[in-house]
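Readers of this paper often ask what the protein records in our data store actually look like. Below, we set out a record of this kind in full and without editing:
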Amino acid sequence: MSTPLNTPIILEAVRLAGNLFLSEFRHSAIPQNMAAFSEQLANIESRCLATLQGHLAADFPATPWLSADFPELAAGEQSAPPEYWLCDAMDGAIQYLQHLPGWTINLVLVRAGQPYFAAIYDPLSKELFWAQADGGAFVNETPLRPSTKRDAAITVAVFEHSHGLAEDPGLLARVSLGITDLLRTFGVVRNYGPHGLQLAYVGAGRLDVFYQEGRDVENWLPGLLIAREAGADVVTADGQPWHWEADSLLVTAPGLATQFQQSRIAATM
């Protein structure tokens, strides 16, 4: 049986986790070697997850937590719980360690194999993006809407890629081709950093296109739900409906996904 949602409790838990780290931001030395980097990263992940679990335990006593991407669940190779939290703790933790903006607390509740509720909190701007399936998307209390741009010259596109490019020549080639196609199609192309926040920004109309080659579903799900509930187009890199097994993601303001596909086709003719 699904747990009734107490939305204010969930949002408050995410805020508390983010503000915990906000008070410590830029107070630790930037790590200068892999050992220090790994130690600080593990500390962030464990403290963030403990904070979220602690504040949500009373309202979700039987809901399990998954802190990693499980492709076998998505592919149906392993039975998934009917409801579970999927948490990557701090998205953009590298930026946090480097004393840079662009880090968030991300959380998504998955029900019946689909993202059902998501929250992304940016403590530096005090903006909390959230959405519930079939319930719309919001930043704090303001409804989100994507942009209505059609002029490619002023369209802002961002791209991401998964880890392991050096070990996967095929993926590296796909990423390189995708970035080239973005540069050929849109006037402004950037790599910004935190996956979830960028996807939420597409839903908010601050960014127009998000593109990624390589499967990264754990980072995608919170922002994907927010962008979709706001009204953005959510497809794969080749324009097909997005699904859990997909190894690419294209999220755009309405109509821009089709525009991008048409540009790619034209470039090959």
